[in-house]
Amino acid sequence: MFIDVTGAGARSFSFEFFPPKDDAGEAALWQAIRRLEPLSPSFVSVTYGAGGTTRDRTTRVTAAIARETTLTPVAHLTCVGASRAELRHVVGAYADGGVAAVMALRGDPPGGPGQPWTPHPEGLDHAIDLVTLVREVSGFTVGVAAFPDGHPESRSLDHDAKVLVAKADAGADFAITQFFFDPAAYFRLLDRLSALGCTLPVIPGIMPVTNIGQIERFAQFSGAALPDGVVQRLHAVADDPAAVRRVGVELATELCATLLDGGAPGLHFYTLNRSTATLDVFADLGLTAARGTR
User: Fold this and answer.
1) 281 burial class (0-12, 13-18, 19+ CB within 10 angstroms)?
2) Of the residues 173, 203, 206, 269, which has the fewest C-beta atoms closer than 10 A?
3) HSE of 287 in the Cβ direction (CA atoms, 13 Å)?
4) Is it the case that residue 200 has pLDDT exceeding 70?
5) Fold of 12-285
6) In this predicted model, what pLDDT tens digit does every residue of 78-97 receive, in sequence order?
7) Domain segments of the chain: what residues?
8) Annotation says 16 is catalytic
9) Dihedral sign from CA coordinates of 292, 6, 105, 73
10) DSSP secondary structure letter of residue 286
C-alpha cells in the first residue's frame, strides 16, 4: 500500500480539491495545487460534483495531476448515475491515466442532500459494493468515507461503525472522515471500531472555516455537528471577514493538534480549492514538507 496510514511510518497529510466548472475555476485549482505541492503531501484527491456530476472533468484533472505534478492523486469514484460497466470503465480510465488509488463512495442522492437514495438500475447500492468491484478489477489502493458525527441516513453511530467495518472487510485500506469540529467525536468512532475488532486506519478530515454561512450550509447538508463553542467564536467576529478567517484557522489548528497528540494517523484537508488557510494551519502546527514530518 503506497499510502502510509498504518502508523508504522510518517503520518499521512493530504489535500482534497473539487473539479472546477469552467476555465477560470480550473486556473484557480491549479494555482492552489502548485502552492500546496511543495508541502509534499502523502496524496491529493479530486471529488465529483454534487450528485455525481463532473465525472469526466474529475477523471481528466486527476490524470493531469498524476502526469504533470510530483503529487500522488487519489481519484474519487461514486455509485451515482453509473452502471457496473461504466464504473469498470472509469477505473480503467484512471489506471490508463497513471492513477492507482480511489476513494470508493456511494455518493449523494441524485436529487441532492436529503432526498431518497436511488441507485442506477444497473449500478450499485452501497459503497461496500463499490469497494468489492474495485478490488475485482484492479490492484488499486482503496479509501472509504467515515462519519464521526454519523451519516445523515444512518440509524445510529453504532450502525455507522458496523458499516465502516464492512467496508474494511470488503477490502478498504483506509478511511477519511467527513469534516468535524469535536475531536471527541473522532476518538469515540475509533473506540467503536476497536470494540468491533477493526484496525482500519481512519484519517480525520479537516475544513478550516473561512466563511460562516458556507460552513453552516455544509454542516446542514453533511450532518456534521457545529459545537456551541465553535459557533460562538465565529459569530463573535462575524462582521469582520478577516477575523472570521483568522478564528477559523485557529480552530482548525487546535483541532489538528488535539488529533495528532491523540494518535491520529494523519490529517486530510478539505481545501475548497484554496491554499492559504491550509498553509496557515500547517505553519501554526509546525509541520514541514517531506511527507509532513512534525
Assistant:
1) buried
2) 173
3) 27
4) yes
5) TIM Barrel (3.20.20)
6) 998 889 999 999 899 889 98
7) 12-285
8) yes
9) positive
10) T
